[in-house]
Write a structure and sequence with these properties.
The protein has about 80 residues and is an alpha+beta fold. The protein has one helix and five strands. It has one domain. A hairpin with a 5-residue loop joins strand 3 and strand 4.
Length: about 80
């Protein structure tokens, strides 16, 4: 984590949700796609307010490389 991402680097940010509730179908849906890290973090905060026991992961998926985790949000805050 904490890799530097150039604002010019093409790619998307994905917000994935992991819920401790086994039948939480809404949380197990497709990732939310955003264009910026700030937007991805706002989406993560919004989702955490709806389901406070979830863990949200912000991932950067570059066009020409491997995706990697930017940050993780849970009820204890950002990691």
């Amino acid at each position: 984590m904490n890799r530097s991402i150039s604002p010019d680097q093409p790619g998307v940010y994905l917000v994935t949700e992991d819920s401790p509730e086994p039948l939480d179908l809404e949380a197990s849906g497709p990732p939310h796609e955003t264009r910026t890290e700030d937007e991805a973090k706002r989406v993560a905060h919004m989702l955490l307010r709806r389901r406070p026991r979830s863990t949200l992961t912000v991932i950067f998926e570059p066009v020409d490389g491997e995706p990697y985790v930017v940050s993780i949000l849970d009820q204890d805050g950002w990691r």
